[in-house]
Amino acid sequence: MLLTADIGNTSITLGVFDGNALVEEFRLASDRDLSVEEYEVLIRSLLKDFRINGCVISSVVEELTCKIKEVLNLLSDEEPLVLTSSLVTDFKICIDNKNELGADRIANAAAAFVLYKKPVIVIDFGTATSFDIVNGKGEFVGGVIAPGINLQLKSLNKFTSKLPKIEAASSPVAIGTNTVDAILSGVIRGCASMIDGLVEQCEKELGEKAVIVATGGYAQIISEYLKRPFDYINPILTLEGMRYLYYSNKKSIYCK
To answer: Is the previous residue joined to 119 through a cis bond, with omega within 30 degrees of 0?
Structure first.
């Protein structure tokens, strides 16, 4: 079986694939203070029912990459593949500096390229809200990065003296008559309006209409307030992209 480990700023998502099928998914906190030994005990307990033959890691947290790679080296039959912009992809990366491109965004673009017709705009609701854009020629041409939903909510509480800390939820009204509803309107409906506006501007620069694919925990909430609905919501898009890139690169190695 293949293990995908998506290491984000907030959480680590582990996916176990049997062929093309995701058979189990686990989520851990991205705790930089845990030791390799502690991560090993934790991950071993989660994967005790699975025989892992291969692993692929996508990480945006450098200090956790080494720890998780060391753990997975002990659990797998082979050394884990770590996603970078130098790996083999079926799409061309056309940005100013390929080394700046996060592994999760490479995985999102790969999955969208394979699963959906192009051009495509992937919107990922994580710690940041990011757009990853593949044009009609199959080229990754760039994207957009904005503060994520939780980051906005936490910032309003942290950097003001009176605004409360609240959880993300549906926004009942646009005009809030209390503080909570006013915050939810600004963050949730504001994010939806941002997406509507940016999709329109991105398509104008592309010169063509794109398929809009959303992933991440808040995609469903935001979809309620869009003028233009998402074409697809795929909660495991990043894991699907990691699986695809793993097998693509293994095939490339074997063919050399």
So the answer is: yes
